[in-house]
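Hey, can you fold this one?
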Amino acid sequence: MTGVRLTELVEAAGCAAKIAPGELAGVLSGLPRLDAPELVVGFDASDDACVWDLGDGRGLIATTDFFPPMVDDPFLFGQVAATNALSDVYAMGGRPALALNLLCFPNCLGIEVAGQILAGGAETCRRAGCVVAGGHSINDHEPKYGLAVTGFVALDERLENGGARAGDALVLTKALGTGILTTAHKGGLLDDAGVRVATDSMTTLNEAPIRLARELGCWPHAATDVTGFSLMGHSCEMAEASGVTLEIDAAAVPVMARAREMAALGLIPAGAYRNRDFFGPRVGLDEALPLDLTDVLFDPQTSGGLLLALGEKDAERLVDALRAEGLPAAVIGRARCRAEKSVLVR
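Sure. Predicted structure:
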């Protein structure tokens, strides 16, 4: 692999490689329905994973996620991809238990690179207490990696997109900007130190918000992880599934260092434009907001944080606990009675 950078082999990186949300919605709407009474959460409300009733008070969570690299270091790529895949289980309120590797690998790279990618994923799963029990690999012209993950949740604690209530506070557990910063790094306008804030965030498990919410007794009413469809896209999905409008204070949203600077230079991933095209009509943006900030709000996140809806006092307690563990969590807004727009940004 001498002289070959992983990011040079791909057209799109990380969650920015997702199919455009409008195109995906059209495909999913035409699929035949194969419902079962045990399926308590499917894809109707764009939830992060499905949940199957095991009949003993527990639900089995099943999800999968994989994508092309957004970093050049193979081990780090494996860590980021695994962290991102495990996040879906945490977003449902659950615990990841079992994972299978999904690896697409080009012949132009040495096989030792594949080993490093898998080792990064295994290290992340070890930290999460999740067993890697096998997987599948194929040849491909672009490298891609991720996991199929199985987890478990008590059914009376499962979290979904659709539980937000008017009056709830909204908590975001990680800062935004991964898509913009990794795009700038790929373009050579941001050095390794500059992009480290993004890679550190992308390898941080979303375990802490769920663990602390349980320990503090401030369980959320709704949750989702913020990934390729951006904060705006995932906020729209939560609002519409819950029958409310989410009102977001743009100044309160945590943003990674230099993300707005890079956005102002035009270093915007293509996925951000797709997100704005599809979700933009459902979002009411204050005209006074600067373009670089709204670009961050539509930025596709790779291994982003959780967006949680919970009572105001519980939200403040949870944010304090998360910040004590070093996470840049913040209360970023409120849920209110349904208005014309799904999301309002002030």
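The chain has two domains: 6-157, 161-345. Let me know if you want another pass with a different chain boundary.
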